[in-house]
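I am writing to request your help with a piece of structural work I have in hand. A protein sequence and the structure tokens that stand for its backbone fold form the material at issue. Please examine both parts with care and let me know of anything in them that strikes you as inconsistent. The record follows directly beneath this note.
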Amino acid sequence: MKIYRRLALGMASSLMLSACTVGPNYQPDRMKLPAGFKEAAQEHPATPEEIARTNKEMVEWWSLFQDPLLSRLVDEAIKGNYDLQIASQHILAERAVRDRAASQWYPQLDANMGGGDVRYSLNIDNWPIRPGNPMNRPEASMLTYGATASWELDMFGRIRRDVEAHEREVEATIEGRRAILMGLLSELASDYMLLRVTQLQIKIATDNIRVARDALDLTNRLYSEGVGNTLQTAQAQAELDAQIAQREPLKTRVSQVTHAIAVLLGKMPGELEDELKQPRDLPHVPEFPAVLPSVVIANRPDVRVAERKYALATAQIGVAVANLYPHFVVPLTFNPNASAMYQAFQANAMSWQFLLMASMPLMHGGKMTAEVRASQATAEAARLTYRQTVLQAFKEVEDSMAAWHDDIEYAEQLHKAAQDSATASERARKLYSAGLVGFLEVLTTERTTLNAQNMEALARLERLRDAVNLYTALGAGWKGVALTNSTLPVSLETQNVLAKAFSQ
């Protein structure tokens, strides 16, 4: 028996020494990328100071808007947003799945014990006499204990490739959480900008209501002096009513945006209304980044997810290929049986086996080779998806840069138009009060002024959103944000004593 045991151990040792990992090793897909972005329009090479400043801006870009309340809301959202917390738990779950796959490397050991009474049938010819029961009675008492173990020898790397694939899945899940974080920051900042611009529009509408009310008072005074007529007073009243009506949807929008911001922070809608509904100045529009080499695309979580998915698919080819090769398993059973407690540990009660088992696929109708081809096609699709993701990332960055540059002149022209319209409106009211123009000219200039002021406010909103969109497109803002762990009241340390002693 010792000879067989030594032989089995020797075979296992030699197989372990000759073990290899089949399947392709992951090689990153090298795309030819431009050195910089076309729309960046850098006129000179970046200095070390500019590079350092840009790298710092990429970490907490929301602070560039110079709005302390926005920065505080971002901090609270990172801590309280439920989508982000859910993504963190998905990472922890994937890590546990990876650890479960890695457990295949180690011997699997289970203990068992039992006892009781059994009865055998006597209606079978040539029933053998059972040891310890010379009368061949059908009843017997039995005690048993023992252990079973199994150890798969990872000769061709099936387990290694499986663990590698799960590790890549963990990394992809981490990048997915970063994508959720970036989406959260982008949505929160955009909602905050919309809130402040809507409040500015309410202020513009309130000022225009005051102007319309002054115009109504003027028409009533002129009518009482015999200069005006009822048509002009009716027109002035209608204009005042219209201005008041235009302000109400803006109030609704403010409430809706404050509710959305509260939910992003993990709070009930309405909790932040008292604070957010207080009008504040618009956030400061940051300067265009000093330097933007194309390598910053690597910060984008969607690009990183696509790259990790490609690595995962490559590892899964190795799993499929390893299934074409023999599998080696070392099974061990130790299971003594007896009819009395004092017999359970005697030599005659001992029962065990220690083997080296090998299995090799021979004929499966092409199933396993089909699995290899499927995994290869999946990996190639993942590589192409990675390339498409990089191209889409470049497009979004270039689009955001183009919008940033174009909206500067657009906002400046609308600001000038709003100022000119306000001047024309004031002059029309003065001429009307002097009886030099009709009230229709006053209404026309006031409506033009209101439209120009609203257009300017929306242009300022676009300028702020251009900055948010650019930093989001560059993949900025996720660095330095730690994962959140599970808070469920379950711990391995509170379970049975074996859970404390062994990694199960």
